[in-house]
Amino acid sequence: MAAAAQLCDIGFVGTGVMGKNLIMNLVDNGFTVIAFDLDQAKLNALMAQDAAERGDGPARVYTCNSYTDLLASLKRPHLIVLSVPAGDPVDDVCHKLIDAGLQADDIVVDTGNSLWTDTQRREKDYEGKFILFSTAVSGGEVGARFGPSLMPSGDPYAWARIKPMWTAIAAKVDPASGRPIERKAPGEVVARGEPCAAYIGPSGSGHYVKMVHNGIEYADMQLICEAYQVMRDALAMSDEEIAAVFRHWNDGLLNSYLIEISADVLATRDSETGQPLVRIILDKAGQKGTGLWTAVSSMELGCPAPTIAEAVYARSISTLKDQRVQASKLLAGPATERPAATEREALIQQLHDALYCAKICAYAQGFDLMKTAAREQGWSLNFAEIAKIWRAGCIIRAAFLQSIADAYERKEELENLLLDQYFAGQISRYQSNWRRAVANASLWGVPVPGLSSALSYYDSYRTEVLPANLLQGQRDYFGAHAFERTDKPRGKKFHVEWSHPGRPVVKHG
Fold first, then answer.
1. For a Cys staple, 365 with which of 154, 225, 305, 327, CB 3.0–4.6 Å?
2. 3-state secondary structure 404-469
3. Domains, the chain
4. Quick check: pTM over 0.85?
5. Is 217 noted as a catalytic residue in this protein?
6. Given 123, 194, 217, 310, which residue is catalytic?
7. What is the pLDDT of residues 434-471, one digit of tens each?
């Protein structure tokens, strides 16, 4: 253990991958940290990393072996960050900190992927015992180390206390270009630029926004994977060729972190076999729940997010590996011939445009869901600010987030991203290739649930009269659920006496 030579600025509980990297980011920016973890090996690794990076300089990180020592080593009022798994471990640590002497004006910050309703519940449970604050973190271990996107929410006093630290360690964006300012070396500090950290709102709102971020992430990843599968299975392209396509796409409209890393994955060869790594990764996708939470929330709120939901379902069907192997030998696909090599360039352009349009729709669904939840919860979310803090540091960072921010700055109360003139024009320009790409994939028997669900969402949203009129007639027929009429004021309900020979329409209720 390295006892603190001075009272530290901030305490940390949990020094796993995310905790350790956030700590090293903080000390790079001049803050002193006292850390506690039940695993001594993790504390030793943290101390070794600090020693290696600081050289002959004084220690910047200290460790302790109890919650009591943690509190005793901190400036008052105490500021403690939790980097522990979501769920019961958060409450377990909170109770132990209370037992160790936590006071009412002390602040505990949950940085895990907690369910937003758990955060709301905790704020009430711990009221008067300490101030619970939350900060959702995106960017993975690299983001945590060199600049994450941070989504804090909760007590405004707590935000005032932690704001200098969070804005210091957050990813930075060049305000002129809207592009990330890269920071890749330990000890390097980026003081200029706009920080990707902004106060989201009341308790739970930050974790809700991060949940939706992850739902969009699910959709974005699925859309990229569908483009990959079409190139692999229908266009018979090698992994290296597809990687080159993704790198080319990353120089234009589709510039994003996920396109960049997809190219890297496809270009990597397995060190044991020499084969393309992607070919020996089993096609069974895992999930940690945040995408599912987003899809469930959309259904609970009646706010359509089909592309996010399809991304969750795609991961679920991938887990049916043994059944899929069996089905591949039994279930016939289309007899359509694969395209000629001479058509490849045009078909790749179709895929590019399809991916771009579907990506716009996925983000539109996510922002619409946040707007609906904000109305339900009484939150005042700043969607331009949210788009801005996602421009760097986070997993879904992409160049076109600047255009999303611009859309909400033009019209703060924008009902849906698709109603913004810029994005409406973008889809109008590229939708023909989107439709061709989806149609071709269907003819070739290549599943594209994300691309096609996004197209159906777009077509449904732009359709003045949907077949829900027939659906309401069906519901009234078998369940007397009633319906509204187009020729009567909204809100008035009517019912058909279906068993009556004349089937008269009567007022309902």
1. 305
2. HHHHHHHCCCCCCHHHCHHHHHHHHHHHHHHHHHHHHHHHHCCCCHHHHHHHHHHHHHCCCCCCHH
3. 10-203 (3.40.50.720), 207-461 (1.10.1040.10), 468-507 (1.20.5.320)
4. yes
5. yes
6. 217
7. 999 999 999 999 999 999 999 999 999 999 999 999 99
